[in-house]
Design brief:
Helices cover 33% and strands 24% of the residues. By secondary structure, it is α/β, with parallel strands linked by helices. It has 2 domains: 167 residues, P-loop containing nucleotide triphosphate hydrolases (Rossmann fold), CATH 3.40.50.300; 66 residues, no CATH class. The protein has a 6-stranded mixed β-sheet with strand order 6-7-8-3-9-10, sandwiched between helices. The longest helix has 18 residues. 36% of the residues are buried. The structure holds adenosine-5'-triphosphate and magnesium ion. Magnesium ion (MG) binds next to α1. This is ABC transporter. GO terms for molecular function: ATP binding; ATP hydrolysis activity. InterPro entries: AAA+_ATPase, ABC_transporter-like_ATP-bd, ABC_transporter-like_CS, ABC_transporter_ATP-bind, P-loop_NTPase. Pfam families: ABC_tran.
């Protein structure tokens, strides 16, 4: 039996500045090595949920357990990968990745090995001395992924990590993510607005409903790991999730002044 790595139990969140609940009664269990994608309308609380799992935002009530331990602050077990790459423009690719290990107790040689390994995993071994400004957006995102990998976290939390990239760079990075998940057995939580990305990457897709944010439906993707976007099975999931996504929220009221 695969052990669960994340347990979210009856989570509620209301930000102090408002009295409206953002998340209500969210419970979910995530197994080690699983890729779980979250889909939901803008504002339904996806980033909030990821921030809470990462320990950056406190729960109003309920619990989040990582490996059985209650999350109260950010830990080295989980790393958040943002849409903005967050690279330091005055540091080379190598030193940007090394930056993630600055406070670690690893030896200098171990840090060096981790940096090289992380950059090799994302195919950037030949750009160690480049500055971020000399890289394409996709390459900068790969540096950010390498930086997360160098920490060797158990969990990577990704908040729309590829939203700003062109289709083919996105496809390339999606394949990198599946490779890393397979090789390193990392657990990956991915927030995305892209249904295809969710089906291509995830073992499970969780659709959230808004106002307040809650789990609406869970779809297990029973496709082999090597996925074909053009296959009938893929198309079946595309239709299923598209329909569920639309049912998860009321369409916006549009007023016509004729
Ligand atoms: N720090 C904050 N203080 C007060 N309210 C917040 C804060 N952060 C988010 N919210 C509110 O919480 C709700 C959920 O926001 P969140 O960013 O989690 O949504 P989201 O699902 O990630 O949306 P998007 O898809 O647009 O990124 C929104 O109504 C937002 O205005
Ligand atoms: Mg968000």
């Amino acid at each position: 039996m695969t052990q669960s790595i994340i347990d979210v139990q009856a989570l509620h969140k209301t930000y102090p500045s408002s009295n409206k609940a953002v998340l209500e009664n969210v419970s979910l269990t995530i197994k080690r090595g699983e890729i779980v994608a979250f889909l939901g309308k803008s504002g339904c609380g996806k980033t909030t949920l990821l921030n809470m799992i990462g320990g950056f935002e406190p729960a109003s009530s309920g619990d989040i357990l990582l490996d059985g331990e209650r999350v109260t602050k950010p830990s080295q077990k989980s790393i958040m990968l943002m849409q903005s790459y967050g690279l330091l423009p005055w540091r080379t690719v190598y030193h940007n990745v090394l930056f993630a290990l600055e406070n670690s107790t690893l030896s200098k040689a171990e840090k060096h090995t981790r940096v090289l390994k992380g950059l090799a995993l994302v195919g950037l071994s030949d750009r160690l001395n480049a500055m971020p400004s000399e890289l394409s957006g996709g390459m900068q995102q790969r540096v950010a992924i390498a930086r997360a990998l160098a920490i060797e976290p158990e969990i990577i939390l990704m908040d729309e990590p590829f939203a700003a990239l062109d289709t083919f760079t996105r496809y390339f990075l999606q394949d990198e993510i599946t490779k890393i998940n397979k090789e390193q057995h990392m657990t990956i939580l991915l927030v995305t607005h892209d249904i295809d990305e969710a089906i291509y990457l995830a073992d499970r897709v969780i659709i959230l409903a808004p106002n307040p944010g809650r789990i609406y439906k869970e779809v297990t993707i029973q496709l082999p790991r090597e996925r074909d976007r053009a296959s009938r099975d893929f198309q079946h999931y595309r239709e299923l999730i598209f329909n569920e996504f639309h049912l998860s929220h009321e369409p916006p009221a549009i007023e016509y002044n004729i």
